What we know:
The chain is of the alpha/beta class. Helices cover 31% and strands 23% of the residues. Strand 4 and strand 5 (100-109) form a beta hairpin. The mean pLDDT is 95.
Amino acid sequence: MTDPTTGPTQAAAQWLADFAAALARGDIDAAVSLFEADSYWRDLVAFTWNLRTQEGPGAIRAMLQARLADTQPTAFALEGEATEAEGVVDAWFSFETRVARGRGHLRLRNGKAWTLLTTMTELKGFEEKTGDNRIKGAEHGVHKGRKNWLEKRRDEEAALGYTEQPEVVIIGGGQGGIALGARLRRLGVPTIIVERNAKAGDSWRKRYKSLCLHDPVWYDHLPYMPFPDDWPVFAPKDKIGDWLEMYTKIMELNYWSSTNATKARFDEATQRWGVQVEREGKPVTLRPKQLVFALGVSGYPNVPKVAGAENFLGDQHHSSQHPGPEAYAGKKCVVLGSNNSAHDICAALWEHGADVTMVQRSSTHIAPSQSLMELALGGLYSEQAVKSGIDHHKGDLIFASVPYKIMHTFHIPVYEEMKKRDADLYARLEKAGFLLDFGVDGSGLFMKYLRRGSGYYIDVGASELVANGSIHLKSGVNIERVNARSVTLTDGTELPADLLVYATGYGSMNGWLADLISPEIADKVGKCWGLGSDTPKDPGPWEGELRNMWKPTQVDNLWFHGGNLHQSRHYSQFLALQLKARMEGIDTPVYELAASHHKR
């Protein structure tokens, strides 16, 4: 506990002053002595030019020995009042380095640091033109041949990619590519976003009719432009699609729709990529210095090879290609899988009068939406959180301040409470034969998402249909064979089928590289996503951060950006700053570049 004679603000201020003084005099021993034995320093670019968590005093010491002299941290200042709960002091602070400004978060226990977060917020001399620095937008006076804003914008669009080359090409124009494009635009980094669909937002519009965001609105804002305050809590897919299309126009992004990337090669001599694209049917070669893949959280759809599939006389497709339920009223439908898409598709088919069977291969975590919002997200992302002073910017940093190594311990109590709150639903699901889990360590949905990107469903209604038998269930089995009008399961059961949907997930993001660049480059990068937690579908070794996401990879000038809307918003800031620094020739020595593991 904090000494009652000092209080949390004084305790945090004293720690910060001691830490700043130790760093200023280069006394690494003194700085490290301010951390607990069980301590973590998570740095987002500011000290390491990486996304890197130092776990324990030894790792903290090694990082400071390598990076302190170059980073030159100064101007540590407490922001607002610190708070204390259950013996832990929480405090916010700002700081500067030789080349940047930053913001941080500190947790103290018994006067020593338990967790420390440091983040880069802006590069000195390359600040975004906001507030007092915003551009005028008009040239007052009279000048012959003057061009207005629209003419200049059209000139830029005509030149970029043809007579002038972009600094960055982003492959993928969904929410991730758009968010990163907006950050780079604000930093003055010439960028082209390549998207195969005809319009921004089509990746949402083209999905099945019932698709809505399962995350609440407070979690999903895009950079710089929050949703209106009457935006639905759970946004429908077409509404999201229209917002993304509008956003690309208002943010003036160089967005090449109807454009397909076909090949990419890095030229060592020029230190630029050659990215071949077809834009509206015409070949163009782009030559950026930096290439970013922003294709979601996954790679190609996983479509299982099942004996006899080629002989099926009904419709069969992966969930990503599912057109919706309208054509299947009165039809026999089999959906292989039990995660979000499987449940959504099953529920929509049932609503339209189809006879639906879900084939569940392995256990799945179910998190009822209301409980998830109240127990897991409400403290950081809710109307109540906003009223208590936690907007999505602050919520993002609080979330980021929890090291992945101990994050599961923060989540386990949440899902223990969820088990109690929703005990009736869980009991009825299990009675129906549904294989239920809460993660290997009971840490629930978000740890599953980080570790493997699958294995869960945010329940917005379909679980009740499974529990009451409206959606038929076959669990603990797989499809062994596809017949002309049916499927045979591994337990010998035969299910009549007019429609077969493979809701079977996706491969790793580096799978895109094998086709676009080369299998060798894909394997050099290694698998994307996952923490190396050595839990199901997330093999070790331990990484400490998400593999290859938003940070330098084993292939120079090649980056990955993606995740849900929250991650796309939050981490686009740090990737954009890394790209801007390289464009401006700022030295960016990467500390502890992560090794690659698990090829694809």
